[in-house]
Amino acid sequence: MKSKKRLFLILWIAGFLGVLSFLLVDLTAMLAHLPVTAGKPIPFSPLALKLLGLIQPTILVSLAVLIGVRLAQKVGLSAPAAEALADGGNVAHALRSQLVPGVLAGIIGGVAVIALWLLWRPFLPPEFVARAEELNKFLPLPTRLLYGGVTEELLLRWGVMTLLVWLPFRFFQKDGGRPKTVWLVSAIIISAVLFGAGHLPVAGALGVQLTLPIIAYVVTVNAVFGLIAGFLYWKKGLESAVIAHMFVHVVILLANRLVM
Questions:
Q1: Which of 1, 26, 80, 135 is buried deepest, with most CB atoms within 10 A?
Q2: Could you tell me the residue ranges of all domains in the chain?
Q3: What is the pLDDT along the chain (260 residues), one digit of tens a residue?
Q4: DSSP label of 78
Q5: Which whole-number Å values give the CA distances from 237 to 11, 53, 77, 229, in the listed order?
């Protein structure tokens, strides 16, 4: 019980650091760029808006971490490094088997994201393309790595995917044992699609009508990496998915620098 409480605290702190990283975003410049807020009076100071914006993701991270801590072990999923830290074990050893798969998957995922952008770009409205590329510049590297890499993986893999595996395992698998492969594959796919759909509000904030090509692009490009991250979480552990997510952002940033 004590180790589970320590595990919750370790993962919650990691996720909350990602939430806090949004304080590094130049919110004034971002709001001035977004068509839905550009030129409109802001009812609160940028700092007050940032602090208010921390409330919802903090609650969601808390719920996701709690779900994972309570259910992951029951369905054969894990966060080996965090669990080793909570139990006083060898963290480096727990990370060793996750590092290379995470890095390689992150590089592949980053290349896939860039390739999908280049393939889809001719079919997207020019206003969407220009505004999306401009908005991308407002996210500093720590926010990309901490929120994208850590917090989003805690939300979608540790929380949502774990729950989606546990539900059919608990109510439909009467023989016990390990969850059937179908439950895990289904959870990977559903959580990946949810991850993709979760980016639609950001696309909508660009002030462009969400046409079918835009919706298809946003959901597909994010779901593709969601599938990679879900598979890593299943086969290697949560930290492998985190590492991959971080490297996706690194690859995208390097590609943007080379283009510029």
A1: 80
A2: 2-259
A3: 678 999 999 999 999 999 999 889 887 777 777 665 555 666 667 677 777 878 999 999 999 999 999 999 999 999 999 999 999 999 999 999 999 999 999 999 999 999 999 999 999 999 888 888 888 888 899 999 999 999 999 999 999 999 999 999 999 987 778 899 999 999 999 999 999 999 898 888 787 888 999 999 999 999 999 999 999 999 999 999 999 999 999 999 998 877 64
A4: -
A5: 14, 30, 7, 10
Three-class secondary structure of residue 205 per DSSP: coil
Q: Give the count of beta carbons closer than 10 Å to the beta carbon of residue 121.
A: 14
Q: Which pairs count as long-range contacts for 123-128, CB under 8 Å and 24+ apart, including other chains?
A: 123/213, 123/217, 124/213, 124/214, 124/217, 125/208, 125/211, 125/214, 127/206, 127/207, 127/208, 128/203, 128/206, 128/208, 128/214
pTM score: 0.92
- R_g (Cα) of the chain, nearest Å: 19
